[in-house]
């Protein structure tokens, strides 16, 4: 006999039998199975293929009466539409539901729209920090506490940034897995976890005497490496984009047109070349002008870019400039913006003079897609936005660098 169940009734139900079933009168097909030990399980009874079948929905009180009714209605609707919820669940259980399978599926699906550097970094984190712990675990069985403890241990070993990056990857994997309806996955256990590590934005920039030291140190490098470092400095662009520069990207108007595929913002970005940058390009043309890439990988056919790491060269150059603070290639971008946006005529005596470039122009040179730049309103060719102003800024920057490195 069916009973109109209430939350109070469900909480108070007991039985002396091994098992007793109470049918809900409000949602026909919903059953509360009560065991002698006090366990209570929600079950839905539905008709499929000419016969009745049962499907377990979950345990009470984890699954409340209201949630059980909602879940039962959904399964009954699926059955009425011709599906068999029990068979579908069995099929999902038979599939590979491991965390490793989740990672393969999500990262594989995202690969075409992810930068190569990001793909490599995610794979490295996955293999070093996550798979040793969870490779064969059911993804749906991993709890929020397990994730918290994992990233906390990484932070405790003195790697707070890696802890944050690991947490970010876990969030991506579970979030995308939910969107893709990965088998048995019904929640993102990492959703509410705060990053454990404190990160400070790097603010290192090079003063004039440091620019001179770095520039002079590059003289001892081979022409390809020297060209990468000097063009990265003179254009204020990311080194990854510089290393993928093609001769076809350099037009007659002395503009480097970075394709969307080689730019972090996934849009075309135009960079006017200063006189000093053009001089570096002219030197390189004599070496690699017959190839596709300005910085080819090897000298056989020149059809592949110089994508190998420049870390060894950076270590050599830091050793050669040991009299100044440690620097990185990304510091060249901070260096440009710092000197570019300083006032030409400082108000206070002793303040360093800069180029007086407007901040929005400096950000446009760097390729920052800030709302203040007007990209949201500019409907023509965004790569041309502030192009003339960017040219003036980079010409001034080239002159600034030339004067700084001149003895």
Any idea what the radius of gyration is?
A: 31 Å
Q: For the residues shown, what is the average pLDDT?
A: 87
Helical residues, percent? 40-55%
Beta-strand level of the residues, as a percent range? 5-15%
Q: Can you tell me the CATH topology of the largest domain?
A: hpI Integrase, Chain A
Number of helices: 15
The strand order across the widest sheet is 1-2-3-4-5
| Structure summary, number of beta strands | 7
Q: Could you say which structural class the secondary elements and strand pairing correspond to?
A: alpha+beta
Describe the protein in words.
It is a single chain. The model has no long low-confidence stretch (mean pLDDT 87). This protein is α+β, with helices and mostly antiparallel strands and 407 residues long. The strands form two sheets. It has a five-stranded mixed sheet, with helices on one face. It has a two-stranded antiparallel sheet with strand order 6-7. It has three domains: 2-87, Integrase, DNA-binding domain (Double Stranded RNA Binding Domain, 2-Layer Sandwich), CATH 3.30.160.390; 99-179, DNA polymerase, domain 1, CATH 1.10.150; 208-405, hpI Integrase, Chain A (Orthogonal Bundle). The longest helix is centred in the middle third of the chain and has 20 residues, at 160-179. The protein is elongated. The chain has helices at residues 7-12, 65-80, 85-94, 99-110, 116-134, 144-156, 160-179, 208-218, 223-235, 239-243, 275-288, 311-320, 331-341, 359-366, 387-405, and strands at 2-3, 19-24, 30-35, 40-48, 51-60, 255-258, 269-272. α6 packs antiparallel against α7 (160-179), α13 packs antiparallel against α14 (359-366) and α14 (359-366) crosses α15 (387-405). 46% of the residues lie in helices and 10% in strands. The termini are far apart.
